[in-house]
Amino acid sequence: MSIEVVKEGNLLRVVQSSEPIPEGEHLFLFTAGEIQQAAARLAWSRLPGESRDDLLHQAQSCSYQEWMEDSSWDEAISREDPANWLAMEDFKA
Amino acid sequence: MIGDIVYTQFPFADSKGFKVRPGLVISDADERGDFYVLKVSSRDQSRDSRIPLLPENFEKGGLPKESAVDPFDVSKTNKEMLVGYRGRLKTDFINVILKMRILASTRTYSRLTHTTNRPGNDPLRLKEEKAKGEKRKEETNSAFSFPLSTFPTVPYAGRVFTEDEVEAAVSATLDFWLTLGPEGEAFEKELATFLGVKHCLLVNSGSSANLIALSCLTTHKLPDHKRIRPGDEVITCAAGFPTTVAPIIQNGCVPVFIDNDPSTGNARVDQLEAAYSPGKTKAVMMAHTLGNPFDLAAVLAFCKKYDLWLIEDNCDALGCTYSMPVEMAKSLGLDHLLKLAEEKSEKRKVESGNSEGASASALSFQPSAFPRIQDGLLTAYTGSFGDLSTQSFYPPHHLTMGEGGAVSIIRRPGLKTYAESFRDWGRDCWCPSGKDNTCNKRFQWQLGELPEGYDHKYIYSHLGYNLKPLDPQAAIGRVQLRRLPAFIEARKQNWETLRVGLADLEEFFDFNLPTHASAWLPPRGEDRRSKIEDGADTDLPSSSSNLPASGSSAAKLAPSTFQWDSTGCRTDCSWFGFMIRVKPSAPFTVRELAFFLDEHKIGNRMLFGGNLLRQPAFVQLRRDRPNAFRIVGDPAEDRRLKIEDGISQSPISQLPSAATSLPGADEIMHTAIFLGTYPGLTEAQIDYEIATIKDFVRQKS
Fold this sequence. Notes:
The complex is a heterodimer.
Chain A: E1 3-8, E2 11-17, H1 32-46, H2 49-58, H3 62-69, H4 71-79
Antiparallel strand pairs in A: 1-2
Chain B: E1 4-11, E2 18-25, E3 34-42, E4 51-53, E5 58-61, E6 67-78, E7 82-89, H1 91-113, H2 123-140, H3 163-175, H4 182-195, E8 199-203, H5 206-216, E9 233-237, H6 246-250, E10 254-258, H7 272-275, E11 281-287, H8 296-306, E12 309-313, E13 321-325, H9 326-331, H10 335-353, E14 372-374, E15 377-381, E16 388-392, E17 405-409, H11 414-423, H12 471-501, E18 509-511, E19 517-521, E20 561-564, E21 570-572, E22 577-582, H13 590-599, E23 604-605, H14 616-624, E24 630-631, H15 637-644, H16 663-671, E25 672-676, H17 683-700
Parallel strand pairs in B: 9-10, 9-11, 10-24, 11-12, 12-16
Antiparallel strand pairs in B: 1-2, 1-7, 2-3, 3-6, 4-6, 5-7, 8-17, 13-15, 13-21, 14-15, 16-17, 18-22, 19-20, 22-25, 23-25
């Protein structure tokens, strides 16, 4: 279930919900960024250990860290609508 | 797939977070799903090596901001980490990037692997050899007790190259044109420009070049009086390499041998007149021996007098120059060189007045300084004086493309078509590889008894060959040509070092003189000499002798000075080798010297086939066909003719050896060897050669 809310003072107003919201249950809200991180972590957990080691090893380099710190990419990607991207099923790794 | 741009989650170094970044896929995924991408970064993070990714470079998709990739900044990722597929680059564009990566790796590989093939004065090579020498010293705890078997050889010749040549070869191989193509075309033009000739045609060896040069003069397309036909005579000389002579016989012609002058190794031009047969002699074809030009003034005058072709076998002499008074050049009809010299002079004036011209990089192609007129002398490269000339690019030669050679069409452009035809199967069509209908009437020819309109591509005017090299070879040759000026200088310098170093052994040896020189003038004082420093800092054994060697370990030697003859002509040799002749009075033979040098791993060679007429092939040829060749001054010639004509019944085998009338060639064969002068020699290697020869002489004296 996904819920879109908006903060109004100390309250969160539900703008829309994909399903009826169950009464009396605690709901945990995540930001889009957190969801992305969670998805990444899930993908990361599925990688073979050797792959994870390789990817972390390269992360030590200066050029890699500079690349990751270039915030202009974060802004550019966040402004994009994924609906305009090419279909993932067309990508053959 | 390779060439795609993807968004991928990349971990921070502590693996506690991830960021989406774009990457350009440059590999397929492995079994774990890992694959490599180039990091796509902001365009404004500009570095020289980054290549911008412009909208026109995309086959589909794109990126939301101006981006670039560094072809060498690679990152690994995994299929699981993909979040988006953002675009695909055009194949041509991605190929450029992939090629850059391969070529960079190629250069790294070659720098690491081919150190000993670098020029003798290359810092990287000297550094490695010094390190090796020090290691050996440590291992043996002595600079003097190395077992000979552990030493590297001192080659007489070899390939000299760096990562530039290897990169060129790999690049051309990746293009996979394979047959002679764009690199070949460019090399032919550059070589022709360098030499100062109309055209150069690449072939697969110097021997093939000689075959093509002679064969193309047999074409029926030449005027009858100039066409070389079976039975016609071609004057050549006796000592040298057999494939200078073989094409004459292979074309059904008769080589007429004149003797060699042992002091230069070249033909004795005083025998030319005696070799001439009215109505039969059509050409002179001879080599500039071992990088020493033959007497071009005399040979050209002879050819002009009798309207003969001159084929210069320049295979061992690329970079030699020959100078003659301008008036003499005019009288010999060398208008093509005089005109080119004037053009170059004008160009130099313009260039010197325009000093803001961009300076050329070390490996950019530079037109040569020759032909040139200075102080009343016309100076030009050998291989640019006659009608045709040939080059060899086999590894021991002045530049290499592996197997390879070239035919130069010096002044009559029409000969190019004939030479090309013999090189390319004998075809009449002159279209370059991959092109059609250059003549614009491909299907409108009627030649021979073929039906009109028969495809010109498959019309054969000659019984030709297929003697082309490959395009990657030409790519190597182009880089080598850029090194040629430095190679020539190194050969001269190495000859100088040997000559000065062995100067005090003239009691035992005769040393070659450049043609037209009557004496070598020893350097004054001791400033051009220095002692070998006991083999220190070298990868070579120190000689067991304490004789001071004269090869310079440090100072560059000034060019030799010579006393010249009265012709007004001069030569400047691009030495193929350093020829030593053992004097009859010496207490040792040339064989003993050669054996000693071999034992000490110093490469040495005879002057190729020596007196060729003593080679089994020629002895047998004479038995099979007594008139297959002629020798100037052959005392048995009359008897041989009678046997051939059936007038005499004496068995051929009872004829005296034909070779005996060639004392100069015999002397070279019995007394001469040569050492290398090639640009891969280090000063330490040459010093070792000098010290070893002195050691040999000391032991034998």
